[in-house]
């Protein structure tokens, strides 16, 4: 028999609205017993690090460089089309667009679809330039909270920490080193190593590497794609965070829990939210 527990939580809107929002969050508990979580897979952008402070700047510069490369410098119409193709409109990120949760291949394909001519090796160019721009703008890579403290608390509970991101490996490692948390991550699942989310391969490999059952795993992220990964993989919990691009309305429909940011995974009593 499945029992439903409801939690009331006041959170601050991730949009520029400071009004507190009160809503119910549901956690499903089999047989009234909370299963032990032994591993947590975190998304990266918007979940562990602030999304808008870095990636909007990166893609805007990449688009300008791309226009220059194809001889279309200053073409505002094409610049706008390229932005829209990846879900960037007037500096705002579409939570369902490629910038929010797509891979470098998704971004390259979206660009190519609106370019006036074929650009050879565009995916390679996009991947290399995202890495280059991230290095140049690394000071804009900022955490959503004190991640070192959070990860220390998680590890003290014997829980394995992993990352499942749409980014490439080198860019991901660069960001984690900058944040000082690379050595805290025990599993690194990137889109150039594993099937992209919401595919299940990254969860399966995480479980395989550490001998975990899927019901012993929680997936945490700021987009619908992250929560669909949780559903497709049949992990115990899919947890949405409001620190990135995903809206409360979208995340609530798929999540077992929705929290302001990852800091709220552990409460003031040093307990996980599902305990």
From TrEMBL:
InterPro entries: HAD-like_hydrolase_sf (IPR050155), HAD-like_sf (IPR036412), HAD-SF_hydro_IA (IPR006439), HAD_2 (IPR041492), HAD_sf (IPR023214), PGP-like_dom2 (IPR023198)
Any one biological process term the GO annotation gives: DNA repair
SUPFAM superfamilies xrefs: HAD-like
Keywords, comma-separated and alphabetical: Hydrolase, Magnesium
GO MF annotation list: phosphoglycolate phosphatase activity
GO cellular component, one term: cytosol
NCBIfam families linked: HAD-SF-IA-v1 (TIGR01549)
PANTHER family noted in UniProt: PHOSPHOGLYCOLATE PHOSPHATASE
Protein's UniProt name: HAD family hydrolase
Origin species: Metabacillus sediminilitoris
């Amino acid at each position: 028999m499945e029992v439903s527990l409801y939690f009331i939580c006041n959170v601050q809107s991730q949009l520029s609205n400071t009004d507190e929002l009160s809503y119910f969050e549901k956690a499903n508990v089999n047989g009234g017993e909370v299963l032990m979580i032994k591993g947590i897979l975190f998304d990266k952008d918007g979940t562990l690090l602030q999304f808008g402070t870095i990636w909007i700047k990166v893609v805007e510069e990449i688009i300008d460089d791309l226009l220059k490369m194809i001889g279309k410098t200053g073409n505002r119409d094409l610049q706008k089309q390229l932005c829209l193709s990846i879900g960037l409109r007037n500096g705002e990120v579409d939570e369902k667009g490629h910038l929010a949760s797509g891979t470098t291949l998704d971004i390259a394909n979206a660009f190519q679809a609106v370019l006036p001519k074929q650009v050879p090796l565009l995916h390679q160019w996009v991947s290399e330039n995202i890495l280059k721009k991230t290095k140049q703008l690394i000071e804009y890579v900022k955490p959503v909270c004190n991640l070192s403290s959070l990860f220390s608390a998680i590890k003290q509970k014997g829980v394995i920490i992993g990352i499942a991101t749409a980014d490439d490996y080198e860019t991901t490692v660069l960001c984690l080193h900058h944040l000082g948390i690379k050595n805290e991550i025990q599993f690194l699942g990137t889109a150039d190593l594993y099937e992209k989310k919401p595919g299940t391969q990254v969860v399966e490999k995480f479980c395989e590497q550490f001998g975990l059952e899927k019901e012993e795993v929680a997936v945490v992220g700021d987009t619908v794609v992250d929560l669909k990964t949780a559903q497709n993989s049949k992990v115990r919990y899919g947890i949405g965070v409001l620190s990135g691009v995903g809206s409360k309305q979208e995340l609530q429909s798929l999540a077992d829990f929705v929290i302001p940011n990852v800091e709220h995974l552990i409460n003031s009593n040093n307990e996980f939210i599902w305990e």
